[in-house]
Design a protein that fits this description.
single chain, about 190 residues, alpha+beta
């Protein structure tokens, strides 16, 4: 299986990966960390999809997509931290003033899991951030110490996943997800 990771510029592919099953739903499209809280809460049903469609046409787009034979199979939300709510998040610290990029949401479609796509997706996100001139990339996964994480909470990834692709822990955080502490992992791209 050959995986290619590309910028998330095709809205229909993004919708396949992170769009809600019900178009009237008021969740997902991976907007909660990408836009301000007030706007995120105000967007209802199809408005959420339309906001994501707008983001797909911005530079940089809202993330990257992993493709297997041109079929979208994985999503990674990726953006300069200054353009996300992590710029103001009180529970996830800033290690320094470097203009880092944040990688905060990962998803592999059912039927394509346990094939190494997540690792390819993270590696592709790193390559894209490097190509765009990011000096470093951060993620905020759970430190589950090998314990099982609820599948719906796996969107942040695990510390072990990011260690396997070269990230190191830069800081603890005050954030907890699914009962596990989140850590700040960083990869220097300079």
């Amino acid at each position: 299986m050959s995986i290619e990771v590309r910028p998330a510029t095709v809205f229909d592919d993004v919708a396949t990966l992170v769009g809600p099953k019900k178009p009237t739903s008021n969740v997902c499209f991976c907007l909660s960390y990408r836009i301000g809280s007030k706007e995120n809460i105000s967007l209802r049903g199809p408005e959420r999809g339309e906001r994501m469609r707008e983001l797909c046409h911005q530079d940089p787009p809202p993330g990257v997509i992993a493709y297997s034979d041109d079929e979208p199979v994985g999503w990674a939300a990726l953006q300069p931290r200054r353009e996300t709510s992590f710029a103001r998040n009180r529970r996830i610290p800033h290690v320094d003033d470097l203009d880092v990029w944040s990688l905060w949401c990962l998803r592999v479609r059912p039927g394509h899991r346990k094939q190494g796509i997540m690792h390819e997706l993270v590696a592709g996100a790193v390559a894209y951030a490097r190509e765009r001139g990011a000096p470093a990339i951060e993620s905020y996964p759970v430190d589950n110490r090998g314990e099982k994480v609820d599948l719906t909470m796996m969107y942040v990834g695990t510390k072990a996943l990011f260690e396997k692709v070269g990230f190191t822990q830069a800081s603890e955080t005050e954030s907890v997800l699914n009962g596990f502490p989140r850590v700040l992992m960083r990869l220097d791209l300079r």
